[in-house]
Amino acid sequence: MTPITTTADLAAFCDKLKGQPFVAVDTEFMRETTYWPKLCLIQAAAASAEATIDPLAEGMDLEPFLEIMRDESILKVFHAARQDVEIFNNLKAMPKPLFDTQVAAMAAGYGEQIAYDALVRQTLKIELDKSSRFTDWARRPLSDNQLTYALADVTHLANVYPMLRKRLEQEGRLGWVGDEMASLADPANYDVEPENAWRRLKPRRHTAKYLSVYRAVAAWRERTAQFRDQPRGRILKDEAIDEIATQAPTDADALDRLRSVPKGFSGSRFGPDLIAAVREALRDPEAYAPVIERTRQSSSPAAGAVVELLKVLLKARAEEAGVASKLIATVSDLELIANDDKADSAALKGWRREAFGEDALRLKRGELALVLDGARVRVVEVRRAPKAASAG
User: Fold this and answer.
1) pLDDT of residue 299
2) 38-45 and 376-381 as β-strands: parallel, antiparallel, unpaired?
3) Residue 130's pLDDT is what?
4) 221 with 86, same domain?
5) Predicted TM-score of the model (pTM)
6) Residue 105 is assigned to a structural domain of this protein
7) Which of 112, 172, 236, 260 is the most exposed place for a label (fewest CB within 10 A)?
8) Which structural domain range is residue 262 located in?
């Protein structure tokens, strides 16, 4: 098997993809030692053609394929799409529209985050060869076995997609996954602007001083990781960002006293710039600190117990519907609902409200009860005794 290694051959292949209703896509990349993912191979399959594409080939220009990714008349089908989509977004070719078979499988009753080989096994009754799973995709040349293994990631995907789509259409659930597909194609999810890096983390405090330093250090780490093309964690661990924001060190001695900062960090090439970032943030903390909306908490001590009951209800309703519970609601959704009947939660909107949200509110009002029936939990209506007539 020979991959496409010239721009001319790639353009010819992409001509065969034009006009197709969908194309199945996958990528192989390396990023264990880098910030930016190194794209090593692209696999694509449609009814008209299939191929592996070598982005590392000398003189290769991916623009013909990137045009396919940008073509909104062609649906792009991925499995577990997020990292693949990130790569194409970095190449200024956000794949729209897209369909993620892993997300779709959650609505079709295949469980949460099903692996590609398991989905192929269950839908196509095919056992995939995993012998090349741990290939170093950056090495050349790639063997026939490796290329065959890689291409199978899209040839079977092109057969799985119509089956999944038909099943969701028959069960009236195709719309259920629409929001997730749109979210995957939202460029905001792949934002690498350093000043927004703090959003991926979990600040533990809400004071202006803490948040200003937290934001500044997260931005410094992001810029440094991008410039050096190294993973964020190799520059500074997440826990160190929290400790630095808490202690706000403004000199080398204070920085070196922190437990989560590597020994001698202040004297490294990173130390002076980091200290400068902290000092700059402290010049006007109120102006630089990000605004974080704090979730309104219930004053009721029973809120935690309500969340636990909602978890049981969610599991019961998800099993009845044959849908992965994660697609319906997250723990954060349950916490919001436990604290506020009118919470801004996806679980209280659209099909999720019908499948779960309305029952969650009824459970809180005491109109539903959870009953253990052997090993199964049943949801039952609570029959209220009629009010006694007043004596006249």
Assistant:
1) 47
2) unpaired
3) 86
4) no
5) 0.88
6) yes
7) 172
8) 194-288
pLDDT tens for 36-76 read 999 999 999 999 899 999 999 999 999 999 999 999 999 99
User: How much is the mean pLDDT over the chain?
Assistant: 93
Token pair listed for 344: 């801004």
Contact between 215 and 198 (Cβ < 8 Å):
yes
Examine residue 136 and state whether it is found in any structural domain, yes or no.
yes
Question: How far is the C-alpha of 244 from the C-alpha of 235, rounded, in Å?
Answer: 14
Q: Express the helix, strand and coil content of the chain in percent, nearest 5 each.
A: 50, 10, 40
DSSP string, 55-78: TTSTT---HHHHHHHH-TTSEEEE
Structure tokens at 101: 């078979």
Instruction: Write down the pLDDT at residue 314.
Output: 95
Check: CB of residue 273 under 8 Å from CB of residue 216: no
At CA 361, angle to CA 359 and CA 366, rounded to 5? 90
- Helical H runs in 348-392? 350-352, 358-364
What is the pLDDT confidence band of residue 121, given thresholds at 50, 70 and 90? very high
Residue with tokens 């065969």, as numbered in its chain: 16
Concatenate the DSSP letters of all residues of 210-276 into one string.
HHHHHHHHHHHHHHHHHHHT--HHHH--HHHHHHHHHH---SHHHHHT-TTSPTTGGGSSSHHHHHH
Tokens of 318: 């998800």
Beta strand residue intervals within the chain, DSSP E: 22-30, 38-45, 50-53, 75-78, 98-100, 368-373, 376-381
Residue range 194-250, pLDDT digits in tens? 999 999 999 999 999 999 999 999 999 999 999 999 999 999 999 999 999 999 999
Indicate the SS3 state at residue 112.
Answer: coil
Q: How many domains are there within the chain? A: 3
Same domain, 181 and 198: no
Output 131-140 pairs: Cβ under 8 A, ≥24 positions apart: 135/28, 136/30, 137/28, 137/29, 137/30, 137/40, 137/41, 138/30, 138/38, 138/40, 138/56, 140/56
Question: How much of the chain, in percent, has pLDDT values that exceed 70?
Answer: 95
